[in-house]
Structure formats: structure tokens, C-alpha cells
Amino acid sequence: SQQGEEDPQALSIQEGENATMNCSYKTSINNLQWYRQNSGRGLVHLILIRSNEREKHSGRLRVTLDTSKKSSSLLITASRAADTASYFCATDEGSGNTPLVFGKGTRLSVIA
Amino acid sequence: KAGVTQTPRYLIKTRGQQVTLSCSPISGHRSVSWYQQTPGQGLQFLFEYFSETQRNKGNFPGRFSGRQFSNSRSEMNVSTLELGDSALYLCASSLQGVETQYFGPGTRLLVL
Predict the structure, then answer these.
(1) A110 touches chain B (CB under 8 A)
(2) Which residues of B touch A50 (CB under 8 A)?
(3) Strands ordered across the beta sheet of B19-24
(4) What pLDDT, in 10s, does the model give residues A39-77?
(5) Any residues with CB less than 8 A from the CB of B7 and at least 6 apart, and which?
(6) Rg (CA), chain A
(7) Cβ contact B46:B36 at 8 Å
(8) Does residue B29 contact residue B93 with C-beta atoms inside 8 Å?
(9) Which pairs count as long-range contacts for B79-85, CB under 8 Å and 24+ apart, including other chains?
(10) Hey, which bits of chain B come out as E strands?
(11) Testing the interface with B: which of A5, A97, A104 to mutate, by most B Cβ within 10 A?
(12) How far is the C-alpha of B101 from the C-alpha of B93, rounded, in Å?
């Protein structure tokens, strides 16, 4: 089955800087979601963007979606040490109740 | 509302044994999905149950099975454990399926 691919695999930045992560996928989708996972714990939903949306904001998060390029980006502005986590994109395959498919994630380290 | 709970949180088994993991979804959620997370393979979809019926199944051997009860609580069972089954097993619930998923903290299984 298709799988989103996040890029980069790992990212290290200083507190206060912005962090950008990218996700590419292979087939048409209904929506794309971003999740965060703190080390060894469950995932937390961050934001969902539908295929007919191009940009969405939630607090310090900004997500863009380019369906023509089959890609999405997650921008975290003014990062904090607490943002240190792995970030995953998840897509559905757009054909009914098919399961979400997760990428392998970007490991973000924010250094205080 | 209480979040998704998973029991047990940690488990150590030996090869050949079987294991049962439990997941209690958020009240009112009818969909429960199970995922296996390993460093090498990332998050892989196991199966999804909706109103006591398996609606989707991932590409895992028949040793992996699950069920859902009338109160939406779900269990997954792994028989004849192998070393490669060592992983974090995550359960997620949602109202209908592929929209926002709410994850539990996971069960970390170690097979010796």
C-alpha cells in the first residue's frame, strides 16, 4: 500500500527557529493528517487538511498541501524544546474507509 | 472524556507463547484500529474494527487476530510469538474511521 515519506528523517534546530518537515505520497487522497509522537508514547493528532484545501493553520503550526505534487509540508514556528518529538504524516487512499497509512516520520530535536 | 487506554503497558514473553492486548476506546467511538510500530518498519496497520466487524486488515500473518466487543472495547491476540513481534502496539479510536484518530499510550511487547 502507499506510504507517505517524510523528509528530512531527522532535523535539529535551536529554540526559537522555525522547523519545516515535508511529506510526499503516491496516490490520490481525501485528506492528509499530521501527528506528533513523544518518545515511545502514543501519537497525538495535530492537524487535518482536506484534499480541496491548500493551507491550514493551528496555533504555531502551518500545513500546506499541494495535490498536484502529492506533497505536504508542516511548519512549526518559534519552536520550543517541548516540540522535540517525531512527526508523522498520514494519508488515506481516497476510496472509502481504507485505513490511514503513516510515513516513517521526521525526528525533530529542538535545542534550548 | 477519558482517553484511549491500553493494557498492559509493558509485557515480556518468550518465543512460542501467545499474548492478548486490550484497548478501551473513547466513549462513543465505534472504530478501533491497531498498529505495530518498530524502528525498522515504522507504523504498520494491523486491522480496524467497526461495530464489532473487522473492516480493514493489514498485511500481517494469521497469527495476528483481533476482535471488538459490543461496548467497542477491542482485543488483539498474537499467537506463537516470534522475536520479530517485539514492538510497540498502538491502538487508536475514532468516531467513524479515517478521520482524526485518538491514540492510546501503547503496549510495549518484548519477545525473548
Answers:
(1) no
(2) none
(3) B5-7, B19-24, B74-78, B64-68
(4) 878 999 999 999 999 999 999 999 999 999 999 999 999
(5) B21, B22, B107
(6) 13
(7) yes
(8) yes
(9) B79/B18, B80/B16, B80/B18, B81/B13, B81/B14, B81/B15, B81/B16, B81/B17, B81/B18, B81/B19, B81/B111, B82/B15, B82/B111, B83/B15, B83/B111, B83/B112, B84/B111, B85/B109, B85/B111
(10) 5-7, 10-13, 19-24, 31-38, 42-50, 53-57, 64-68, 74-78, 87-94, 102-103, 107-111
(11) A97
(12) 6
Burial per residue of B36-70, b for 16 or more beta-carbon CB atoms within 10 angstroms, e otherwise: bbeeeebbbbbbbbbeeeebbebebeeebbbebee
Amino acid identity, residue A36?
R
pLDDT in tens, B27-58: 999 999 999 999 888 899 999 999 999 999 99
For residue B10, count other CB atoms closer than 10 A to its CB. Answer: 9
Q: Is B58 on the interface with A (CB under 8 A)?
A: yes
pLDDT band at A16, cuts 50/70/90? Answer: very high
Look at the block and give the residue holding cell 471488538. B68
What single-letter DSSP state applies at residue A80? -
Q: Supply B31's cell numbers.
A: 472504530
Q: How far is CA A57 from the centre of its chain?
A: 13
Is A91 in contact with A29 (CB distance < 8 Å)? yes
